[in-house]
Amino acid sequence: MNKNLIISEILENSISKLSESDSCQTAYLPSHGKPMPSSDSLREIVNLLREILFPGYFGTSNLKPENVRYYLGVNVDKVFQLLSTQIRRGICFACREEKNTNCKHCEDNAPELAAEFISRLPQIRQKLSTDVKAIFDGDPAVRSYGEVIYCYPTIRVMTNHRIAHELLKLEIPLIPRIISEMAHSETGIDIHPGAEIGEYFAIDHGTGVVIGETCVIGKNVKLYQGVTLGAKSFPLDENGNPIKGIPRHPIVRDNVVIYAQATVLGRITIGENSTIGGNVWVTQDVSPNSKIVQQKSTSGAGI
Amino acid sequence: MNKNLIISEILENSISKLSESDSCQTAYLPSHGKPMPSSDSLREIVNLLREILFPGYFGTSNLKPENVRYYLGVNVDKVFQLLSTQIRRGICFACREEKNTNCKHCEDNAPELAAEFISRLPQIRQKLSTDVKAIFDGDPAVRSYGEVIYCYPTIRVMTNHRIAHELLKLEIPLIPRIISEMAHSETGIDIHPGAEIGEYFAIDHGTGVVIGETCVIGKNVKLYQGVTLGAKSFPLDENGNPIKGIPRHPIVRDNVVIYAQATVLGRITIGENSTIGGNVWVTQDVSPNSKIVQQKSTSGAGI
Amino acid sequence: MNKNLIISEILENSISKLSESDSCQTAYLPSHGKPMPSSDSLREIVNLLREILFPGYFGTSNLKPENVRYYLGVNVDKVFQLLSTQIRRGICFACREEKNTNCKHCEDNAPELAAEFISRLPQIRQKLSTDVKAIFDGDPAVRSYGEVIYCYPTIRVMTNHRIAHELLKLEIPLIPRIISEMAHSETGIDIHPGAEIGEYFAIDHGTGVVIGETCVIGKNVKLYQGVTLGAKSFPLDENGNPIKGIPRHPIVRDNVVIYAQATVLGRITIGENSTIGGNVWVTQDVSPNSKIVQQKSTSGAGI
Amino acid sequence: MNKNLIISEILENSISKLSESDSCQTAYLPSHGKPMPSSDSLREIVNLLREILFPGYFGTSNLKPENVRYYLGVNVDKVFQLLSTQIRRGICFACREEKNTNCKHCEDNAPELAAEFISRLPQIRQKLSTDVKAIFDGDPAVRSYGEVIYCYPTIRVMTNHRIAHELLKLEIPLIPRIISEMAHSETGIDIHPGAEIGEYFAIDHGTGVVIGETCVIGKNVKLYQGVTLGAKSFPLDENGNPIKGIPRHPIVRDNVVIYAQATVLGRITIGENSTIGGNVWVTQDVSPNSKIVQQKSTSGAGI
Amino acid sequence: MNKNLIISEILENSISKLSESDSCQTAYLPSHGKPMPSSDSLREIVNLLREILFPGYFGTSNLKPENVRYYLGVNVDKVFQLLSTQIRRGICFACREEKNTNCKHCEDNAPELAAEFISRLPQIRQKLSTDVKAIFDGDPAVRSYGEVIYCYPTIRVMTNHRIAHELLKLEIPLIPRIISEMAHSETGIDIHPGAEIGEYFAIDHGTGVVIGETCVIGKNVKLYQGVTLGAKSFPLDENGNPIKGIPRHPIVRDNVVIYAQATVLGRITIGENSTIGGNVWVTQDVSPNSKIVQQKSTSGAGI
Amino acid sequence: MNKNLIISEILENSISKLSESDSCQTAYLPSHGKPMPSSDSLREIVNLLREILFPGYFGTSNLKPENVRYYLGVNVDKVFQLLSTQIRRGICFACREEKNTNCKHCEDNAPELAAEFISRLPQIRQKLSTDVKAIFDGDPAVRSYGEVIYCYPTIRVMTNHRIAHELLKLEIPLIPRIISEMAHSETGIDIHPGAEIGEYFAIDHGTGVVIGETCVIGKNVKLYQGVTLGAKSFPLDENGNPIKGIPRHPIVRDNVVIYAQATVLGRITIGENSTIGGNVWVTQDVSPNSKIVQQKSTSGAGI
After folding, report:
1. What is the pLDDT of residues F124-136, one digit of tens each?
2. What is the pTM of this model?
3. Does E225 contact chain D (CB < 8 Å)?
């Protein structure tokens, strides 16, 4: 048997195995044949929302007060169309995973949910505006508001977060998580869409920051790179599976600063006006106005 | 001389310098004129493999048991074509770097190597399926298997890793490293394709994780963000260059959990069922069933 | 009123609010209607520069000494065109933010600045060549120079940095920061374009590394993932705003190695030939030839 | 008032006029807001059908008997999805134009119609195969069947025609006409989808050929460039509008050849085995086995 | 000398010859280095204008009265930007060809000219609306106005013509001709932008129609495929070159029908309500209410 | 059985039939699995050649004498790569059609053939330059050489023809015909690559022109739209198939003008300095300096 025939047979064989029902179930292929949420479409939605929230900085670049409403009108209309479809798919996806056979009713709701979300865009823009100001006021290296909007990963991640958080509040499944993961991939900052974050919030540099699902963060909080606001442990149910939805991440009050690489774990409270130093490990409440630092390093050999 | 002429001269001058043989050698331009591996093509290959391994979640979205085999067939055929070319280029690239002048023979092997790799895809899918399950079972924030596949960077990085690891075992040069770096860029998780990783592996959040070339990781291991499994030091040869290929990264046994920002260095063994706390620095063996934590932080001034 | 009409009204309402003058000011929409810098164009410029600096590795893949000058010529010409436009927009953007009403004069300078930048490309290539060598010499896992160029995030980030640093020295506003953020997003390594970095510089793995605006780094320095070279604090002016441009980040002398997750803060000096261990927190000068390590971890319960 | 303001006002003014309800009605803008058929999607459908009908010649180029069924399967599935949508839109479009307010029922039929069309593809391929043979047998300039498929506009136009004709027989509105116009634009050959055309049909060169809606053409007919098979006149109804659907174009029997630029008009019959010479004008029946030619030209002055 | 070297030398040699100043002049390469008009940009402009003139039929497909103004606003703004640039380039191009060295002044006019053109769009739409009606009223094969807009090449060519004719009246060089040639390529109908064409104009099928620069066509005129309205001859100047701009094409009065392949040449007048039969050659005035037909064909041998 | 299942079955059934060996043979699917020539790649090649032959008019638009050679160098190199591949595929395609089983040898020739073709580009440019001049000198409507290059279909079709004719002379199969058909589709002018056409050749308007394989056309010839230079009949071999390659199309001597819609058939000679009027049918030799016109039309009823 010649070489080309052998190769054809290997490929054929592999295709057969990969198409087998068992292997497809291993890959969690649904059997319903309904279209699933599309990452590409969600990426387009987020880009359009970015153009809506900060017109001129993203997308068409020479907007001015006279023509901005046309561009906003078109972009809002496009977001409405695309988001309605993705919301419908997200709802359908969740229903099927939960073995509902009749999710027709809830899907019909998708356009209203998309419109409701769009009605909240002015407030989202307002909140993001305070985040821009927080960065500008706190970083001696920045020269202008525009530089913050263009260059700071915190604005990128907070745009996605404030979008995803509103979608989550509308009880839309899956879609918010995909949107927050996009920002995680682009910035290295991982904020669960469930986290509640107040105004005037800033993350500097940001790579490695983790903010868990049940975090509650006040106003005027600043984090540095590598900070974790995570869970310490979580209760299991009688089957040994983690119980979903229990508050298990920190509460951070107003005016707190947390320095690089600090790890704050569990449903503890960092009191207002406190400062947490870099590279520390915090698992208990911190009272207001505290300062926490790592023990001194020592010089030594052995590296 | 007018302004435009001066600019033309500056550009011309710079082009000349950049084209000089010496400067080109500085840029490591090969002299053979053979096509080099293409990152764009490798990106397309990885995307096709992702569609093959998790059909429906990536690429065409409304697959169902009736039509999935056509899509798998086309995607496998495309991967075979593209990968054969890239393997050939990778082999040629390595030969030239090693000053072989006759690499014709080894190049001819490329289609067989691509077919052999494709024959391993069913097992790769099987292993990734356990990774999905590991995440689902361990994270109270997750709602469905689909959410894990769509949103968790650990699935993205492990898809690339399990692909790259098989290609490395087939002794294909360069290509595996490019594939693992793609995932590093997207997820902030840096796994060398040489690392051996068992089933049911999970990384939570993940940004900043580093897993070195000679690591050996058992089953049911979980890492958090910022964990390093690295080398402490490495022996040099008589010319002062590092000796390649010596085991120098940790062995992590089954059922180990390592928390955020921990740094584990050197050819040490973390015994089974152990837990390593966050932000610690470990350079010696840890016996089975241990728990290692950082010393207490203290409150203090001086930030 | 029917469902479609209600939705139309909600969308219309949201578009109106988003178009209002007040809301647009919140979004920092400039009123001048001039085109702003374009991230897409800057991304294309950086890709072209990468093709110029390492011909054959990026872009067209089968270059050889005979035809390389044509490709260099075209790419240099394209960079000149695109960069002139972006420099002009960057200057204009900065002028407007500073309320200058006449920036016509400075804009006219853009082609000269672009040409001046291009004249420095041969030196940039030369410096990057030493960075490639530094990685190759220091990592036992690497097999060839080509692997370094293709796969190491440090080369990607240093390409952007050495470009952005030259643009900053030409006093071009905003553009350098956008370029450095691109690399930050791709690699998780955040280097401010103001930082001065010597030859033969290497970052291994790199995710989470931060190098601040006023850092000065000598020759043959190596950093590992998660290292911060940051500011400890910064003086405020009479209005409580940070004073811009004051040196506030570390000076790192020649031949220093800093291990994973170390945090070095403030205008301190790390003396030559020193080694800083992983996960430490350094806020004071380190004398030459020192070794600094974290205190020992202890075994314990309570995770 | 300055120049920019005047321009802004002119643009604003023009947008207002173009948006006015009256002007939009002039442009036949429907008021229902339903998506209309998409030329881009229909172009994609035709390209996919061309790949299905002549695999290997269009689209993926290295098909072979072993893998052709995967590519056919994917392409058929894609055509089914896309065509179902376009059929639905075409039906809806026609309903609205006819002021039906309830076209929900007929739209639901779209997937069945698409499937029924797909079931006829094997016969369409069979007929096109005879058209390829007709060209090959009749043109001394052609070297291979492949050359006919790649290069002859008659194959391109007959592919579209045989597709459009089947869609028309399924009573799908609008879509068939758009498909036949695509071929008209590409080839200069205008065949109404209503025309019935037998096997083994050939058009040589073809530019300017017109074949009207109610033509009936037998087997083994050959036309040259510029031939018109048109209507001479058509009866009007009581309102002076043309009555639709009345047979008004020629019947051309088997084995007829019609040379360049001949114009054949009205519901006449060209008898079998006849030859019509170039540049003639025929408005009456031609009996079988006839030869019709133009009167002799004369030499003369006056140009 | 080996084969690869010989090939390299041939290529090098050819590049040198093609780059020589003499050969470049043969190719009419201008020496000024100014950007020339761009066919791609003009194609985009025409597509945007088509979306503006017939909203919903081209481009975004689900417009409705509520959102149409946003889409019109964005498209008008984009046309203004793109067209200003192309007008500037067209003026500059013409200046340089005429060896003007200072065309700065006329270029500055480009935005006003673009705005003036845009102010005429409502009238252009109005006229095209009558062309749609003319086709609908005259063709028994058509089912709806929408079918006319989607499928009839006459609408495509008249859209381009009515645009190009207005641009020509604004004395913009070159651009109108490029726009009319686009339609020629798509439809096989060649209308010079100088031709004046009244309302309610229809061309059926259309391939091969030619309408010359100085034609004047009344209202309610209908042409069939292959009709030429051309020049018979033209006077030469003392150097033997044709004198530009002299009326030399036919005047066609209201309510004339000209059948397929008729050739009408010279500055003659076809009187109102006349009918010209197919395949005839007319070079003298035709009085009103006439009918002109070709002499009878005869049966004969000799083909 | 439900509706979706029935549809699935219909699709499955159709895919099976289309994949059957018999049906695939009907579609002329080759069995060798070698890649076939690619229309997309040939289109790219022609576009690159157009940029090479008329730099500045197509592709990059702001070329000048200083930088034109870089663009030419890159474009020539790209054409060489792409054309070598397509020539190889064309040769292979022809071999297989002729049932050669060993075409390895001739394929190896492809790069030399591509290089040889490239060496002829300077002469092709030179000839096209005379075609531009012919149009400019003969059309009172034209304003500049640039307008001819941008707008006249004759330049587009002659560019493709002069390219295709050289490729044909190098005995490359299939590729020349695909290239000439591209121009046919774009312009409605159908010139077989075999036709020999002298310098200073012009076609005005051009739609419907046909120039056959064995035509020989002198210098300074001008054709108008709809002219056919075709074959009258052709001898058959003993099997009733047309004999290939016999001269059967007209010879047109220097300085001939042929007006619109004239049909000239057979291996006849149109003597030099002759004029052929519009709409005539010529099948016999025309002596030099002749004028041929159609008989007078008459007025009449009956349309």
Report:
1. 999 999 999 999 9
2. 0.93
3. yes
